[in-house]
Write a structure and sequence with these properties.
Elements: E1 10-14, E2 19-27, E3 33-36, H1 40-43, E4 50-51, E5 57-58, E6 71-73, E7 78-79, H2 82-91, H3 97-100, H4 102-106, H5 117-132, E8 137-147, E9 157-169, E10 176-186, E11 192-203
Antiparallel strand pairs: 1-2, 2-3, 4-5, 6-9, 7-9, 8-11, 9-10, 10-11
C-alpha cells in the first residue's frame, strides 16, 4: 500500500534536462523522510537523489556534478517592490536617500528611487541556490568582479543566469572542492543589472 505524502507536492526544476517533475516527500517505517519520484531521470539525476546528513533529500549538485561551461537559466523570476527595497535598507541600516527619498531622487539622473544594489546582488545569487547548491555547499569563499551596469527600479522583474567558470580540488579538504560561478542578472528589458564571480566551497558526493 502506497504511503500517504506527508507534504504537498513540490515542483522541482531539473536544470540539466530542462523539465520539471512532481516530487513527494514520504516517511518510511523508520521515520526517514525520503523523496519519491516516478520519473527515473529525476531519481537518478546527478546530485538529485541523495539524502543529506539530517536525513532529508538535498536538491543541490555536488562538486563532481559541475562541469566547466555549464549554464543554468533559472526559471524563478522576481518582481522587486518598494517594500523589498525599504525593508532591506532598514535591515542593513542603509539610510541612502537614493533608495528611500522619492523627492530627493526626483532631482537625480534616475528621476526616481533606485533599489539597493546589494539587494539586487543577493537576489540574483539567491535565485540560483535551488538549482545549484541547495544543501551541498559548505560556504562562500569570496565574490569578485561585481558590477551593476544598470539600476533597478521598483516594479522591475529580475531573472538570473549562472555559469560554471572554473572548478578545482581543495588542497586542504579531500571531501570538498571549489567551484567558481558567474552570476548574471537581467531585467524585463534584457538589460544587465548585476554581475559577479563567486567562489563556492562545495561538498563532494558522499562515499
Amino acid at each position: 500500500m502506497a504511503q500517504r505524502p506527508i507534504m504537498a507536492a513540490l515542483t522541482v526544476e531539473q536544470s540539466l534536462t530542462g523539465f520539471a517533475e512532481q516530487v513527494y516527500l514520504h516517511r518510511d517505517g523508520d521515520g526517514l523522510v525520503m523523496r519519491v519520484a516516478a520519473d527515473p531521470c529525476i531519481t537518478s539525476g546527478v546530485g538529485r537523489n541523495d539524502i543529506g546528513s539530517r536525513g532529508y533529500f538535498m536538491a543541490g549538485l555536488y562538486y563532481e556534478d559541475f562541469e566547466i561551461g555549464m549554464e543554468f537559466k533559472h526559471e524563478l523570476t522576481r518582481t522587486v517592490t518598494e517594500t523589498d527595497n525599504a525593508l532591506f535598507c532598514a535591515l542593513t541600516h542603509n539610510s541612502q536617500p537614493l533608495h528611500l527619498d522619492e523627492e530627493f531622487s526626483k532631482g537625480t539622473e534616475y528621476g526616481q528611487r533606485i533599489v539597493n544594489s546589494l539587494f539586487t546582488l543577493g537576489l540574483v545569487i539567491g535565485v540560483s541556490v535551488g538549482d545549484t547548491t541547495l544543501g551541498t555547499t559548505i560556504g562562500n569563499l569570496g565574490m569578485t568582479d561585481t558590477r551593476f551596469a544598470n539600476p533597478v527600479f521598483h516594479g522591475d522583474t529580475i531573472r538570473s543566469i549562472t555559469k560554471v567558470k572554473e572548478k578545482r580540488e581543495s588542497k586542504s579538504r579531500p571531501t570538498a572542492g571549489l567551484v567558481v560561478f558567474e552570476h548574471f542578472g537581467h531585467n524585463q528589458r534584457d538589460e544587465e543589472v548585476a554581475y559577479c564571480v563567486r567562489t563556492a566551497f562545495m561538498r563532494k558526493r558522499p562515499a
